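Reopening this ticket.

The earlier resolution said the output was attached, but the attachment link was broken on my side. Pasting everything inline this time so it's all in one place.
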Amino acid sequence: MSPGQLQGPEKLKEVTRLVDSLDNDLSAKKLSPADKVQTLLALRQHGTNPANADPIYSDKGINLLARYGFEGETLDIRRAALRCIANALLLNKDMRQVFVDTGYAGRVAEKLKTEISDDEMILSRILFLTTYDTNIDFSVLITKHSMADNILSQVIRHAKQIPKNGRKSYSQIDELALTDTLKLVFNVAKLYPDLADSFTPLIPHLFKIINRIDIPDRQPLDGLIGYIINALSTLDLEEKPGRFESNPLFPKFNQNCNVDKLINILDAAVGVYNSEELEPRAVPLLHLLITIYEFAPEGPRKYMQWLLLPEDNDRSVPIGRSDTLSSKLLNLSTSPSVHLKTAISELMFVLSGKDADSLTKNIGYGFAAGFLASRGLQIPQDAQEAFATNSSRVSDHVNPITGQRYDAEPVDTGPPMTQEEKEREAERLFVLFERLTANGLIKAENPVAQAVREGRLEELPDDADSDLD
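Inline output:
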């Protein structure tokens, strides 16, 4: 009967026998290397379901597996034991501290200096799992066991595996190994910010990888690209003297290459995911673009503005209604997804020089007002006057409310409003304006009250014609 078919007491009895066999052989030395490998593989199979596998999920079991994982006489024995450990740490969080207490975590970090992706994957996964629910000291792993240096060697190795021309395929095991390593980098840098600088040397190589790999048609942020962006989002990207030979964000051969690839990824993502799916996936990318823009020289800044802000062509319809990336982002900025809409609005604000007036001119009052209010920023005086009087002070040819060109606005060819319709519309605008003023969103005289005061608006007499008669 195969390990997966044993259940209940029979499974527990067999797991106990296998663990005891390995334990006894530490002194008896009777099992051949092949026997040890088979025993460990059987334990791993039994351990895929923790029920009735208690001897594995115990101090004795983890310590025993750790000895075979680091002191086993062959690579196959060590690899099989480490797979058992990784499985146990994944399925039972209590075993993570048990493993840390064995004292072998440093050996895991040292073994990350390997040319075999299969081994890299399992070692990175073990360390990644210990970032949760343990008291592990990653500063010791970095300073005494070369964890950051060995991770750098892995990222460099993977960057070399991906050719510029894309003719050579990137194997699944290589991608899985790099993914686990990047998850480790993200967690350590995120949970222990003081250690994030240890991973700074990864930056140019991560950008090299992201430029060389293709953007998946489906779920562009669910695979390797997403993990690279997550890792980059935790690192300090500011160019500092002596840090790199040349700025990795804006390389001399093409200052816009990284910006271009990241915006293409964003464009692909907003075309595939809905707002709920985008929130956990795209927010790190949006924050990464914000950070890059703030460090960018003039050329890449103008390039990002050109790609991400509405262009004149977008203004043939109200802003947000075209099929461009900027319109899609602005529509997403009104979604219920709090972090997503905040990140998009922040990106537009940064692209507008963090200036409320420029933001309003770039994306229209309708999209800008909510963000400015949430930041406690006053609405630009030009926008207030435009809203109050329908003048064109914000721009000579653009409606400041909708962002549409005046010459592209539809002409009303319907019948003129009746006097009562005009009065009802004036009353509605009066109430709306009073609410905006009470909420502190605008500071200007109510245009309806102003019209009445100046004699430009009269109340209907009781005997006036009504379209409701």
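Reporter confirms the inline version is readable. Residues 237-411 form one domain. DSSP finds 22 helices and no strands in the chain.
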